[in-house]
Amino acid sequence: MSLQGKTLFITGASRGIGLAIALRAARDGANIAIAAKTTEPHPKLPGTIYTAAEEIEKAGGKALPLIVDIRDENVVADAVAKTVEAFGGIDILVNNASAIHLSKTVDTPMKRYDLMHSINTRGTFVCSQACIPHLQKASNPHILNLSPPLNMQAKWFAPHVAYTMAKFGMSMCVLGMAEELKPEGIAVNALWPRTVIATAAVQNLLGGDRVMRGSRKPDIMGDAAYVILTKPSREFTGHFCIDDDVLRGTGVTDLSQYQLVPGAELLPDFFV
Length: 272
Known about the structure:
Elements: E1 7-11, H1 16-26, E2 31-36, H2 49-59, E3 62-67, H3 73-87, E4 92-95, H4 110-135, E5 142-145, H5 161-181, E6 187-192, H6 200-205, H7 209-213, H8 219-229, E7 240-242, H9 243-248
Parallel strand pairs: 1-2, 1-4, 2-3, 4-5, 5-6, 6-7
Helix pairs in contact: 1-2, 1-8, 3-4, 4-5
Protein backbone atom coordinates (compact mmCIF):
# COMPACT_ATOMS: atom_id res chain seq x y z
CA MET A 1 0.00 0.00 0.00
CA SER A 2 1.19 3.52 -0.79
CA LEU A 3 0.38 7.00 0.50
CA GLN A 4 0.24 8.41 -3.01
CA GLY A 5 -2.61 10.92 -3.22
CA LYS A 6 -3.43 10.49 0.50
CA THR A 7 -3.93 13.59 2.62
CA LEU A 8 -2.22 13.82 6.00
CA PHE A 9 -3.02 16.45 8.64
CA ILE A 10 0.10 16.58 10.82
CA THR A 11 0.36 18.77 13.90
CA GLY A 12 3.77 20.18 14.76
CA ALA A 13 5.12 19.27 11.31
CA SER A 14 7.44 22.25 10.88
CA ARG A 15 10.42 20.32 12.29
CA GLY A 16 11.61 17.16 14.02
CA ILE A 17 9.56 14.01 14.08
CA GLY A 18 6.48 15.61 12.55
CA LEU A 19 8.50 16.79 9.56
CA ALA A 20 10.20 13.38 9.22
CA ILE A 21 6.78 11.71 8.99
CA ALA A 22 5.68 14.30 6.44
CA LEU A 23 8.78 13.85 4.27
CA ARG A 24 8.44 10.06 4.19
CA ALA A 25 4.82 10.40 3.07
CA ALA A 26 5.81 13.06 0.54
CA ARG A 27 8.12 10.59 -1.19
CA ASP A 28 4.98 8.69 -2.18
CA GLY A 29 3.34 11.85 -3.49
CA ALA A 30 1.11 12.51 -0.47
CA ASN A 31 -0.62 15.78 0.40
CA ILE A 32 0.52 17.25 3.71
CA ALA A 33 -1.29 19.84 5.81
CA ILE A 34 1.38 21.34 8.07
CA ALA A 35 -0.50 22.43 11.18
CA ALA A 36 1.97 24.32 13.34
CA LYS A 37 2.64 27.73 14.88
CA THR A 38 6.14 28.63 13.70
CA THR A 39 6.12 31.22 10.93
CA GLU A 40 9.39 32.99 11.76
CA PRO A 41 12.77 31.30 12.30
CA HIS A 42 13.76 30.78 15.93
CA PRO A 43 17.46 30.77 16.89
CA LYS A 44 17.12 27.51 18.84
CA LEU A 45 14.25 25.91 16.91
CA PRO A 46 15.08 25.84 13.20
CA GLY A 47 12.26 25.36 10.70
CA THR A 48 8.95 27.06 9.96
CA ILE A 49 5.75 25.90 8.30
CA TYR A 50 7.05 27.50 5.10
CA THR A 51 10.49 25.86 5.09
CA ALA A 52 8.76 22.54 5.86
CA ALA A 53 6.45 23.10 2.90
CA GLU A 54 9.46 23.64 0.63
CA GLU A 55 11.07 20.40 1.83
CA ILE A 56 7.84 18.46 1.35
CA GLU A 57 7.41 19.77 -2.19
CA LYS A 58 11.03 18.89 -3.04
CA ALA A 59 10.46 15.37 -1.70
CA GLY A 60 7.56 14.88 -4.11
CA GLY A 61 4.52 15.81 -2.08
CA LYS A 62 2.08 18.69 -1.99
CA ALA A 63 2.12 20.97 1.03
CA LEU A 64 -0.38 23.25 2.70
CA PRO A 65 1.26 25.35 5.44
CA LEU A 66 -1.31 26.35 8.05
CA ILE A 67 -0.80 28.58 11.08
CA VAL A 68 -2.45 26.52 13.81
CA ASP A 69 -2.50 26.71 17.59
CA ILE A 70 -4.15 23.41 18.48
CA ARG A 71 -5.28 24.84 21.83
CA ASP A 72 -7.96 26.77 19.91
CA GLU A 73 -10.70 24.48 18.59
CA ASN A 74 -11.98 27.17 16.20
CA VAL A 75 -8.55 27.53 14.61
CA VAL A 76 -8.29 23.76 14.30
CA ALA A 77 -11.73 23.53 12.68
CA ASP A 78 -10.74 26.23 10.19
CA ALA A 79 -7.48 24.46 9.35
CA VAL A 80 -9.28 21.16 8.81
CA ALA A 81 -11.79 22.91 6.53
CA LYS A 82 -8.95 24.49 4.51
CA THR A 83 -7.28 21.09 4.18
CA VAL A 84 -10.46 19.47 2.88
CA GLU A 85 -11.00 22.38 0.50
CA ALA A 86 -7.45 22.09 -0.85
CA PHE A 87 -7.17 18.31 -1.12
CA GLY A 88 -10.73 16.97 -1.09
CA GLY A 89 -10.63 15.18 2.25
CA ILE A 90 -8.41 13.85 5.05
CA ASP A 91 -7.10 10.28 5.16
CA ILE A 92 -4.69 10.46 8.07
CA LEU A 93 -4.31 12.51 11.24
CA VAL A 94 -0.93 12.55 12.99
CA ASN A 95 -1.11 14.04 16.49
CA ASN A 96 2.54 14.95 16.88
CA ALA A 97 2.48 18.40 18.52
CA SER A 98 3.58 18.24 22.13
CA ALA A 99 4.89 20.38 24.98
CA ILE A 100 7.43 19.20 27.53
CA HIS A 101 8.54 20.50 30.93
CA LEU A 102 10.43 18.03 33.08
CA SER A 103 10.06 19.09 36.69
CA LYS A 104 8.89 17.85 40.06
CA THR A 105 5.51 18.88 41.42
CA VAL A 106 6.55 21.94 43.43
CA ASP A 107 8.82 23.09 40.59
CA THR A 108 6.12 22.99 37.91
CA PRO A 109 4.58 26.42 37.22
CA MET A 110 0.85 26.06 36.59
CA LYS A 111 1.36 27.93 33.34
CA ARG A 112 3.56 25.04 32.16
CA TYR A 113 1.13 22.45 33.52
CA ASP A 114 -1.70 24.07 31.58
CA LEU A 115 0.41 24.33 28.42
CA MET A 116 1.30 20.63 28.44
CA HIS A 117 -2.24 19.47 29.08
CA SER A 118 -3.82 21.89 26.61
CA ILE A 119 -1.45 20.88 23.80
CA ASN A 120 -0.75 17.21 24.50
CA THR A 121 -4.04 15.79 25.75
CA ARG A 122 -6.61 18.42 24.83
CA GLY A 123 -4.97 19.27 21.50
CA THR A 124 -4.95 15.61 20.51
CA PHE A 125 -8.62 15.31 21.42
CA VAL A 126 -9.57 18.51 19.57
CA CYS A 127 -7.77 17.55 16.37
CA SER A 128 -9.20 14.03 16.46
CA GLN A 129 -12.70 15.38 16.99
CA ALA A 130 -12.34 17.76 14.04
CA CYS A 131 -10.88 15.18 11.67
CA ILE A 132 -13.07 12.15 12.43
CA PRO A 133 -16.02 13.26 10.24
CA HIS A 134 -13.61 13.39 7.28
CA LEU A 135 -11.77 10.20 8.21
CA GLN A 136 -15.13 8.43 8.14
CA LYS A 137 -15.20 9.08 4.39
CA ALA A 138 -11.65 7.85 3.71
CA SER A 139 -10.81 4.42 2.30
CA ASN A 140 -8.04 3.57 4.79
CA PRO A 141 -8.27 6.11 7.63
CA HIS A 142 -5.69 6.35 10.40
CA ILE A 143 -5.06 8.40 13.51
CA LEU A 144 -1.52 8.15 14.84
CA ASN A 145 -0.56 9.70 18.18
CA LEU A 146 3.08 10.25 19.08
CA SER A 147 2.67 8.99 22.63
CA PRO A 148 4.07 6.22 24.82
CA PRO A 149 2.70 2.83 25.86
CA LEU A 150 0.54 3.17 28.93
CA ASN A 151 2.62 2.09 31.89
CA MET A 152 1.44 2.71 35.43
CA GLN A 153 4.81 2.18 37.12
CA ALA A 154 5.50 4.96 39.60
CA LYS A 155 9.03 5.47 38.25
CA TRP A 156 7.60 7.06 35.09
CA PHE A 157 5.53 9.53 37.10
CA ALA A 158 7.73 10.53 40.02
CA PRO A 159 10.33 12.72 38.23
CA HIS A 160 7.77 14.69 36.18
CA VAL A 161 4.17 14.00 37.18
CA ALA A 162 2.63 16.77 35.06
CA TYR A 163 4.44 15.79 31.85
CA THR A 164 3.69 12.10 32.28
CA MET A 165 0.00 12.81 32.83
CA ALA A 166 -0.12 14.95 29.69
CA LYS A 167 1.61 12.35 27.49
CA PHE A 168 -0.40 9.47 28.90
CA GLY A 169 -3.51 11.53 28.15
CA MET A 170 -2.60 11.20 24.48
CA SER A 171 -2.17 7.46 24.95
CA MET A 172 -5.54 7.20 26.67
CA CYS A 173 -7.05 8.80 23.58
CA VAL A 174 -5.59 5.88 21.61
CA LEU A 175 -6.98 3.32 24.03
CA GLY A 176 -10.49 4.77 23.97
CA MET A 177 -10.81 6.00 20.40
CA ALA A 178 -9.42 2.78 18.89
CA GLU A 179 -12.31 0.87 20.42
CA GLU A 180 -14.86 3.62 19.77
CA LEU A 181 -13.95 3.99 16.09
CA LYS A 182 -13.29 0.32 15.31
CA PRO A 183 -16.79 -0.23 13.86
CA GLU A 184 -16.13 2.62 11.41
CA GLY A 185 -12.81 1.19 10.28
CA ILE A 186 -10.74 4.11 11.58
CA ALA A 187 -7.44 2.88 13.00
CA VAL A 188 -6.06 4.65 16.07
CA ASN A 189 -2.52 3.76 17.13
CA ALA A 190 0.42 5.20 19.06
CA LEU A 191 4.09 5.39 18.10
CA TRP A 192 6.98 6.05 20.48
CA PRO A 193 10.78 5.87 20.10
CA ARG A 194 12.95 3.27 21.79
CA THR A 195 15.75 5.80 22.11
CA VAL A 196 16.08 9.54 22.36
CA ILE A 197 15.47 11.19 18.98
CA ALA A 198 17.75 13.98 17.79
CA THR A 199 15.43 16.98 17.67
CA ALA A 200 15.84 20.64 18.58
CA ALA A 201 13.80 20.05 21.73
CA VAL A 202 16.23 17.36 22.87
CA GLN A 203 19.18 19.60 22.08
CA ASN A 204 17.73 22.47 24.10
CA LEU A 205 15.99 20.72 26.98
CA LEU A 206 17.52 17.33 27.68
CA GLY A 207 21.25 17.84 27.96
CA GLY A 208 22.62 19.10 24.67
CA ASP A 209 25.45 17.38 22.83
CA ARG A 210 25.89 14.46 25.24
CA VAL A 211 22.29 13.37 24.80
CA MET A 212 22.35 14.06 21.07
CA ARG A 213 25.31 11.68 20.68
CA GLY A 214 23.19 8.83 21.99
CA SER A 215 20.21 9.69 19.80
CA ARG A 216 18.71 8.35 16.62
CA LYS A 217 17.66 10.54 13.70
CA PRO A 218 13.98 11.50 13.32
CA ASP A 219 13.98 9.41 10.11
CA ILE A 220 13.44 6.24 12.15
CA MET A 221 10.12 7.62 13.38
CA GLY A 222 9.19 8.71 9.85
CA ASP A 223 9.85 5.23 8.48
CA ALA A 224 8.05 3.50 11.36
CA ALA A 225 5.04 5.80 11.00
CA TYR A 226 4.93 5.00 7.28
CA VAL A 227 4.71 1.28 8.04
CA ILE A 228 1.79 1.84 10.41
CA LEU A 229 -0.08 4.28 8.16
CA THR A 230 0.05 1.92 5.18
CA LYS A 231 -1.47 -0.98 7.10
CA PRO A 232 -5.16 -1.85 6.55
CA SER A 233 -7.00 0.30 9.08
CA ARG A 234 -9.57 -2.37 9.88
CA GLU A 235 -6.87 -4.88 10.74
CA PHE A 236 -4.39 -2.81 12.76
CA THR A 237 -5.75 -0.59 15.52
CA GLY A 238 -5.30 -0.01 19.24
CA HIS A 239 -1.57 -0.73 19.22
CA PHE A 240 1.17 1.03 21.16
CA CYS A 241 4.12 0.69 18.81
CA ILE A 242 7.85 1.21 19.37
CA ASP A 243 9.77 2.48 16.35
CA ASP A 244 12.47 -0.19 16.03
CA ASP A 245 9.99 -3.02 16.73
CA VAL A 246 7.86 -1.77 13.84
CA LEU A 247 10.83 -1.75 11.47
CA ARG A 248 12.12 -5.14 12.60
CA GLY A 249 8.64 -6.47 11.87
CA THR A 250 9.20 -5.54 8.23
CA GLY A 251 12.54 -7.35 8.09
CA VAL A 252 14.88 -4.44 8.86
CA THR A 253 17.78 -5.81 10.90
CA ASP A 254 20.41 -3.08 10.60
CA LEU A 255 19.30 0.07 12.36
CA SER A 256 22.71 1.71 12.42
CA GLN A 257 21.70 4.02 9.56
CA TYR A 258 19.48 5.88 12.02
CA GLN A 259 22.19 6.70 14.57
CA LEU A 260 23.20 10.32 14.72
CA VAL A 261 26.72 9.29 15.78
CA PRO A 262 27.58 5.83 14.42
CA GLY A 263 28.74 3.47 17.15
CA ALA A 264 27.70 5.71 20.05
CA GLU A 265 25.83 4.12 22.96
CA LEU A 266 22.12 4.75 22.48
CA LEU A 267 20.16 6.41 25.27
CA PRO A 268 16.68 5.06 26.03
CA ASP A 269 13.70 7.38 25.87
CA PHE A 270 11.20 7.86 28.67
CA PHE A 271 8.46 5.26 29.28
CA VAL A 272 10.27 2.37 27.52
